[in-house]
Amino acid sequence: MRRTREEVDATLQIAKLNAAELLPAVHCLGFGPGAGAAAGDFCLLELEPSLCQQLEAGHSLVIRGDKDEQAVLCSKDKTYDLKIADTSNMLLFIPGCKTPDQLKTEETHCNIIHTEYTTEDLLDQIQASEEEIMAQLQVLNACEIEGYWRILDFDYEMKLLNHITQLVDSESWSFGKVPLNTCLQELGPLEPEEMIEHCLKCYGKRYVEEGEVYFELSADKICRATAQMLLQNAVKFNLAEFEEVWQQSVPEGMITTLDQLKGLALVDRQSRPEIIFLLKVDDLPEDNQERFNSLFSLREKWTEEDIAPYIQDLCGEKQTIGTLLTKYSRSSIQNGVKVYNSRRPIS
User: Fold this and answer.
1) Cβ–Cβ < 8 Å for 217, 188
2) For the chain: N or C, fewer Cβ within 10 A?
3) Is the pTM above the cut of 0.70?
4) pLDDT, position 26
5) Nearest to 45 by CA among 80, 78, 11
6) pLDDT below 70 — which residues of the chain?
7) What is the secondary structure of 8-24 as a DSSP string?
């Protein structure tokens, strides 16, 4: 059973245990993939020796009882009560487990395990078509390194992008025609060439002209990433000040507009002064109802223009934003503008 830190702390409080007196190491037990079902489908059962002998001889034990009755265990000739108990007896038969006394005498080691996935792993585990998976990897700016998919740290991604935009500026290139080979030659001593090419793919479109590979960089993508870099370091940002700093931070010739930030940042025009803050659609719940609950907990009333970027990905083939709003919200008119609020109380 998995528990959050808050649940563990609550359990310790109920049990009147001092967390400082507990051992720093724990054993996390789970059923392996060969178990044939989820861990919640299994319970450990402690039996007296005579019942174990019956099972070993090939006989069966049956659990009986109606839904509103106390379950019992029946052998061929006897009936036993079933009782639930929290116990650590599983330590007795889990290979490699150590007793508290053994743990006290050993140095505690903390290991960080990095999970890496190949394309085959993703196809085996994710419930989506190959085309959908590859498209989402592209959306995430994931890169394949030595056969494994990885997502770059955003700050590192911005460092790569900054190298490229500075080179474009120093060489007086057009952002619509950035030569790949020259970029690799100039920036190769600073960063791995595959990372430079990956960044060009993330923020531009590849094309070939007269046998030479070029990238057409997207102003919208670069402006959006720059805004994220600025907003991630502030809880809230004065909108007027942000727009000024944002425009000054993007490469010369690029024009910033709030339309570039749909699904990334939210403007609060009711506050004085108006503010903007980071709100990424990727950080919101995937479940429809939970998504709407999260949005309405942030803001009581939404215009369709503001909420649309945060629910667009929930639309199925035959669903529209209007359909979702009708199902999960109520509409009203506020100062001549149609707004939407939750159908149910939000705690």
Assistant:
1) no
2) C
3) no
4) 62
5) 80
6) 1-3, 23-42, 85-115, 347
7) HHHHHHHTT--GGGS-S
Nearest to 331 by CA among 302, 307, 295: 302
3-class state of residue 62 by DSSP: strand
SS3 54: helix
Q: What is residue 84's predicted lDDT score, i.e. its pLDDT?
A: 76
Instruction: Collapse the DSSP code of 333 into the 3-class scheme (helix H, G, I; strand E, B; otherwise coil) and give the result.
Output: strand
The residue with tokens 């000024």 is: 244
- The number of C-alpha atoms within 13 Å of 64 and in the hemisphere containing its C-beta is 10
Gap between the Cα atoms of 234 and 230, Å rounded: 7
Q: Which residues, 6 or more positions from 147, have their beta carbon under 8 angstroms from its beta carbon?
A: 118
The bridge status of strand 237-238 relative to strand 275-278 is antiparallel
CA 118 centroid distance within chain: 18
- The pLDDT of residue 203 is 95
Task: Please give the Cα distance from 307 to 326 (Å, whole number).
Answer: 13
Model pLDDT, residue 37: 47
pLDDT score of 60: 85
CA gap 135, 139 in Å, rounded: 6
* Residue at 217: amino acid letter: L
What confidence score (pLDDT) does residue 276 get? 95
Which token pair is 111? 């290991």
321 and 304 Cβ atoms separated by less than 8 Å: yes
